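Help needed: design a sequence for this.
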């Protein structure tokens, strides 16, 4: 099969699978359509997600269901203040040999899976956080001087509880930047919440059907990077990111007043990568300005640090991002 036929086949498979994936997840997840799409975009792009939401909003169920749709191994790690790096990566143990004597053998930790749910990542010290973040960036772990490659694909979804921040260890901005999206999960509407209660207090539903294999997902990663994007859309993504940086020539006045630190180059990279994926999911052959705008909030909200003046004036981060989009659109 030549390259053109491969791209055509994978594009058709992805487009056909979108509705099936949504349908399968809809059997266990009620509402949250935008959240589901953003997680799907990140998974198909090969990116990691930070999820901010109160307890009891089905974060674990959603991630587990995604792993089943894609036939991927799944591990959940509950982060606590006493969690050690070896509890995540694994450790060497002394094991008896069948022929006699003993040897050191590496026992893999829960990080060795395709999808990792890092629950409440901000409740563990920086040393343990860094063990996970090294795996995210390098796709490998180092134990006792030995390096072990992680399986592919590898996807981390880390959660944070925004309600109670006492006794937590917030991730530094440089580590937050490794996440493709920061997805906010809110409460459901009344009708959706009624449906959740109905489903969870009745008979168990049908299991989620596997649609994609891990190999299919890796091929999707290759396909998405081949999706064409115009020079204008590329520049638009770069302008969105650069407009959030105070002290820059093109920074709007409200950025100088309200923002302490803006988004780096990774923001523009993830805007374009996400836009390409969203375009394919919506049956389009190329990324557009609308695709970039649709992903501006999840890409930028963990890369912009507002200052005390903004907080004193009651300005939220979401309002700042909205103003950035409006400002760049007016100039564009």
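Sure. Designed sequence:
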């Amino acid at each position: 099969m030549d390259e053109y036929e491969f791209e055509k086949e994978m594009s058709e498979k992805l487009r056909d699978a979108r509705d099936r994936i949504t349908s399968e997840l809809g059997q266990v997840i009620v509402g949250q359509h935008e959240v589901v799409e953003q997680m799907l975009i990140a998974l198909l792009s090969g990116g990691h997600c930070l999820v901010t939401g109160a307890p009891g909003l089905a974060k674990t169920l959603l991630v587990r269901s995604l792993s089943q749709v894609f036939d991927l191994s799944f591990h959940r790690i509950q982060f606590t203040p006493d969690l050690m790096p070896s509890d995540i990566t694994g450790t060497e143990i002394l094991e008896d040999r069948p022929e006699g004597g003993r040897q050191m053998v590496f026992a893999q930790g829960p990080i060795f899976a395709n999808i990792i749910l890092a629950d409440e990542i901000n409740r563990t010290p920086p040393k343990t956080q860094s063990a996970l973040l090294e795996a995210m960036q390098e796709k490998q772990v180092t134990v006792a001087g030995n390096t072990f490659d992680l399986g592919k694909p590898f996807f981390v979804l880390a959660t944070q509880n925004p309600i109670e921040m006492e006794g937590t260890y917030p991730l530094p901005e440089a580590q937050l930047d490794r996440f493709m999206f920061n997805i906010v999960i809110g409460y459901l509407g009344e009708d959706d919440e009624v449906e959740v209660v109905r489903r969870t207090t009745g008979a168990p539903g049908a299991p989620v059907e596997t649609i994609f294999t891990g190999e299919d997902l890796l091929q999707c990663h290759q396909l998405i990077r081949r999706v064409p994007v115009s020079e204008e859309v590329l520049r638009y993504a770069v302008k969105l990111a650069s407009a959030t940086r105070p002290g820059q020539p093109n920074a709007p006045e409200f950025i100088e007043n309200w923002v302490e630190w803006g988004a780096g180059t990774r923001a523009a990279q993830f805007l374009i990568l996400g836009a390409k994926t969203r375009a394919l999911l919506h049956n389009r052959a190329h990324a557009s300005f609308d695709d970039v705008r649709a992903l501006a909030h999840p890409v930028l909200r963990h890369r912009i640090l507002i200052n005390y003046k903004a907080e004193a004036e009651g300005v939220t981060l979401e309002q700042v991002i909205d103003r950035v989009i409006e400002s760049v659109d007016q100039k564009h």
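The CA atoms of residues 103 and 168 lie 39 Å apart.
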